[in-house]
Amino acid sequence: MATWDFSPYRIQVWLSVEPRGALPPVQRDEIAHTIIDFAGPAAGVTWDVEVVEPPAYLRAEVTRSLESFNADMIVNSDLVLVVNKESNKREDMGLKRADDLFRFASGSETAVESVKSGVRIGLADPQANLLGSRTVQALGDAKAKLLHSHSGRVLGENSKRLVEQVLAGELDAAVCYRGDTLEHLKDLLSFELRAAGDSRDILAHDKLIFINIQHDLRGLTVQAREMDGPMRHLGPIGTYSVRQPELLAHVCASAMAEAFSPVARIEERVRSDEELAAEKEKGRRNVIDARVRAGGLIRRPECLSHIEPGDVLLPIVRRNDKYGNPTVLESVAWTFLQVVGRDAAMLDCDVQSGTRGGIAARRSARTQQVGIKAKPRPGGTTVYMTSRATPSGSDKRPMIGYEIHNKDLKNDEMELIGYSDWRGAFDVEPDPDNMLRLLYVKNGSVVLAKLPVVPGLFEELRMEMNDDERRLEAEAFVKSVQTTILDTVAQTKVLELRLRKAMDEKKVDEVKALV
User: Which helix (H) or strand (E) holds 493?
Assistant: First the structure.
């Protein structure tokens, strides 16, 4: 059984080449061996790496664009058996309840034989398309042949067409892709067909690393991106140009290392009153602990799985249903964990959050919280600020001319670094001394937002805040009244002094003029 401290990361590398056949098999094998050989010196025993080609049914999506490829595409490529909820043939199929559908989809050949003849079951032709061959793989040859004989024909249709035929009553059931049923869930009864290499097997890996090799007239381009399996979080894309083909394998190995981000599990540690008092004296009011994944296997600080003080973690939350399937997968908005200390595999972190909720160590049995090490790319981040839409329906507008202040995390000093432009945007450049920058947005004398930012981690960020213009107008009016009152008081005081001086000198004419 895998343990958090002493089990290595299970990493699956998807190696794809576009166009296919651009690299000979020998060179592909060389790249795979180089990646595996690289893992030992770079990560020690904390990595268990395998290099494979992307599944055939996902190859086009992966090679087309790493930027748009995500975990939903993997999940939506699973096969499901669907039945129209209103079908009068459900009893002929022995499908009165969802439990019967489970028995039918995952049971023995006997369950299939119980289906009465004449039931129309849509199965794609295994000789015609990939859906058909995957259907045979999921059902098994024996069950597929039985269903073929019961349905009376094999349909060489695509998945969407099969769903349409079930909805129209032309078919009583069909095997199709999960993604094609999402718009019709209220009309369909479905159950997934388990097959080797489906989304559960793929996303069971701790890390998926996609490496795309593009071949064009200018040479070779390597792109690499990481997906965290349990959290389904995608890291930034790294792009590398290769002018010397003999270096391609080493560039791919380096790209994988750059894409990998270690993980720490957020935990609750009971602190004594003395520890809490000491932390408050240091100005640490929001602290949390995290345990490094495979921390018991790390033997040197150069290990790629190592997390050390000064690093920054992006917190990710996963909430599961009772079956273990994720219902919520999200990063905590405007929140980072700054690592300030380490004791063996345990990290001591400060929580820097721009929201009231932030993140809490307490969690239920169905909630998982981890921090993924931030690995920003060169360059900065552009933050766009807009007003929130009001109940009256007014449109969002850019927050123009707002002050941006930077807070030094070491001495708490504030420094004005700029203003938002006509788009409500401002650029955040990297700080060589601190990966994390703590920014405050001010309008007039009021702080409107606290924005922790890791420049380069995201290309752009968007922040909605309350429209502050009316409050600013009121503040300006109050200040103008205050200024007027101060002027009046000052003038009165000056006049009083002049009158006293004139009276002391008995200058009657001057006194009359002043009065």
Answer: helix 469-504
SS3 of 406-469: EECCCCCCEEEEEECCCCCEEEECCCCCCCCEEEEEEECCEEEEEEEECECCECEEEEEECCCH
Task: Report the alpha-carbon distance of residue 479 to residue 494 in Å, rounded.
Answer: 22
**Residue (of 118, 175, 116) closest to 144 by Cα position:** 175
Whole-angstrom Cα distance, residue 434 to residue 230?
A: 29
pTM (2 d.p.): 0.81
Q: Are 9 and 208 in contact (CB under 8 A)?
A: no
DSSP string, 169-213: TS-SEEEEEGGGGGGGTTTEEEEEE--TTSHHHHHTSSEEEEEEE
Band of residue 111 on the pLDDT scale cut at 50, 70, 90: very low
Tens digit of each residue's pLDDT (9 = 90 or more) over 88-108: 655 555 555 444 444 555 544
User: DSSP 3-state assignment of 85?
Assistant: coil
- Per CATH, which fold does 9-71+200-259 belong to? Rossmann fold (3.40.50)
How many CB atoms within 10 Å of residue 197?
Answer: 14
Fold (topology level) of 381-467: Immunoglobulin-like (2.60.40)
Burial class (CB in 10 A: 0-12, 13-18, 19+), 110: exposed
Domain spans, the chain: 9-71+200-259, 78-195, 263-372, 381-467, 476-514
407-454 pLDDT per residue, tens: 988 888 899 999 999 999 999 999 888 899 999 998 877 788 899 999
Q: Are 55 and 197 in contact (CB under 8 A)?
A: yes
Quickly count: other Cβ atoms within 10 Å of residue 274's Cβ.
8
Cis peptide bond N-terminal to 19, omega within 30: yes
For the domain bounded by 78-195, which CATH number is listed?
3.40.190.10
- pLDDT, one tens digit per residue, over 331-357 is 998 999 999 999 888 999 999 998 876
Mean pLDDT of the chain: 82
According to DSSP, residue 399 is labeled -
Report residue 177 as tokens: 């892709």
Q: Is residue 81 classed as helix, strand or coil in its secondary structure?
A: strand
